[in-house]
Design brief:
The complex is a heterodimer.
Chain A lengths: L2 H38 L11 E6 L7 E7 L2 E7 L5 E5 L10 E3 L4 E4 L4 E3 L5 E3 L8 E7 L2 E6 L2
Antiparallel strand pairs in A: 1-10, 2-3, 3-4, 4-9, 5-6, 6-7, 7-8, 9-10
Chain B lengths: L2 H14 L2 H9 L1 E3 L8 H21 L9 H10 L4 H28 L8 H23 L4 H15 L5 H9 L6 H33 L17 E3 H26 L22 H12 L3 E2 L2 E2 H17 L1 H4 L1 H4 L5 H23 L1
Antiparallel strand pairs in B: 1-2, 3-4
Classes of the chains: A alpha+beta, B mainly alpha.
């Protein structure tokens, strides 16, 4: 064997080893990091599936007022208008996730975080909210108020 | 030295050869010039960080990081534990002063171009520590689990979620789920007392070793402390005594603030309550928060929020890379552009913070 082929033979052997060792190093790092990153992502927890919830009694909610009620694990805002009509909307502001409230003095649904305003049909009328609030269906049976998704 | 101390010293010296260190400390000096005052702000920040570590460890002995117990455990600390009110109040005040001191330190380094070669790594570790300090502030804010913190965390993490591609998964990792819940509190607690302190300790170690190794930077074109003895003071004891005096004054100031203006605990967070009026983030996030308010919901076809965050992110990255972008200062030439950029940043932050306070 002449000198050159010996060197190139050595080179390929070395190159081969470099790839094998380098590759296994990368694989090893990957196999260490993967479980760590996977651990960081919380497992999906099923939303509490609710379709129809009793949220209160008609006799307990005054005209021209609003309240936050629980719909599964989501807040829903229930508004009773001047004429006694009940409306319900998603209570989470479409801007940055704060919980809205009814403002008697302005006659609107208002978000304190960034001064977003919605009218009493849930339409975004002022401030930064990009979308209207989703409406929920409200049904009263005798004195009991039920809220359900309006699909 | 008393014979006992001398014996102890020579016992240690025998084994680890202290003479190098003593000689190094004896030769170390601090330049004296019209901008020397800014040298104190690094030590000022360091002292406040030490206060944070000590008071933080004390609070950890009673704090309970869960949705049902967090608020109550802090109530217990401030109402029942001896001096609990003081320790908690100092921790909150010191956190805010720490960010302020670190900001002043950062701006003074920026304006004097102390980041220029050979101190690029010192600047980079400093900037990373500053970002972690903001993370300390954000994560610590939620720990009392009160109303204001709950909604501030909702808004803060929701803004991250608005970023393209990585936003959603990062938000879920930060929140420990889709929404801000007790799981978020556990995560923020983990960041605040384990992850951030761990990373911070390493960065701080590198930062301090570099400062010792390279000595203090001098203003561009005014680098004569090495030659002229009248333009420097010995680090030990002259500078260190001044530093210690300042630390003593800061500790007094902190105690006065904590006693006269105890930090409020507010109302316990209720996941099913409306956001209270007057909700604001901590003052050091206020200028960014206020900017987001002024950007329209939609700019061309980008979301206003996303545009705001992208601009701040890019500005932050450029700022961090200052030593590599500012070539003039490295060559010892004056760079007025850098001064204008720095001035703009200071004015912007001050004006928007005041606006955020008022409106």
């Amino acid at each position: 064997m002449d000198k050159q082929s010996a060197t190139s033979g050595q080179y390929t052997k070395r190159g081969f080893l470099k790839y094998v060792l380098g590759g296994s190093l990368v694989a090893w790092i990957g196999s260490v990091l993967y479980p760590v990153f996977a651990f960081l992502i919380p497992p999906k927890q099923g939303d509490v599936e609710v379709s129809n919830v009793m949220v209160g009694r008609l006799s307990e909610i005054e005209r021209d007022s609003g309240a936050i009620v629980r719909f599964g694990n989501k807040p829903v805002i229930l508004v009773r208008l001047d004429n006694g009509e009940l409306r319900a909307f998603d209570g989470t502001c479409t801007h940055l996730d704060c919980t809205v409230q009814y403002r008697k003095d302005m006659g609107v649904i208002w978000c304190a975080c960034h001064n977003g305003k919605y009218d009493l049909t849930g339409r975004n009328i002022a401030g930064p909210p990009p979308r209207p609030l989703d409406e929920y269906k409200v049904v009263t049976k005798e004195d009991e108020i039920f809220v359900s998704k309006s699909t | 030295m008393k014979p006992t101390w001398r014996k102890l010293y020579s016992w240690v010296d025998d084994r680890v050869h202290l003479e190098d260190l003593v000689e190094f400390l004896g030769k170390k000096y601090v330049p004296v010039h019209s901008h020397s005052i800014w040298y104190y702000f690094g030590g000022f920040s360091l002292f406040l960080y030490i206060i944070q570590v000590v008071t933080g460890i004390l609070l950890l002995l009673y704090y309970k990081g869960s949705e049902d117990l967090a608020f109550e455990s802090i109530q217990f600390i401030v109402a029942k534990v001896e001096f609990g009110w003081l320790i908690r109040s100092i921790h909150s005040w010191s956190a805010n002063l720490f960010i302020l001191a670190a900001m002043i330190h950062m701006f003074s380094v920026f304006f004097t171009k102390a980041y220029r070669k050979p101190r690029e790594i010192t600047w980079l570790t400093g900037m990373l520590m500053f970002f972690i300090a903001l993370g300390f502030g954000f994560s610590g804010y939620l720990l009392p689990w009160n109303e204001l913190a709950f909604f501030a965390t909702k808004v803060g993490t929701d803004i991250v979620g608005a970023l393209p591609f990585i936003g959603e998964p990062v938000m879920i990792v930060l929140r420990g789920g889709e929404d801000v819940t007790g799981a978020t509190l556990s995560r923020m607690f983990g960041f605040h007392v384990a992850i951030f302190p761990g990373i911070f300790a390493v960065l701080l170690g590198v930062h301090l070793v570099l400062v010792q190794r390279q000595g203090m930077s001098e203003p561009v074109g005014d680098e004569d402390a090495e030659k002229d003895e009248s333009k420097r003071m010995p680090f030990f004891p002259n500078f260190i005594l001044r530093d210690l005096l300042l630390w003593l004054l800061v500790l007094n100031l902190l105690t006065i603030l904590a006693v006269v203006f105890p930090w409020d605990l507010g109302q316990k967070a209720d996941l099913f309550a409306s956001a209270p009026a007057g909700i604001k983030p901590e003052w050091y996030f206020l200028y960014m928060f206020q900017t987001l308010k002024y950007i329209p919901a939609q700019v061309l076809f980008i979301d206003g929020e996303v545009l705001g965050i992208l601009v701040f992110t890019v500005a932050g990255i450029l700022w961090t890379l200052a030593p590599f972008l500012d070539r003039k200062s490295e060559r010892g030439e004056k760079n007025t552009l850098i001064n204008y950029i720095g001035l703009f940043a200071v004015v912007y932050i001050v004006v928007f913070t005041i606006l955020g306070w008022l409106f």
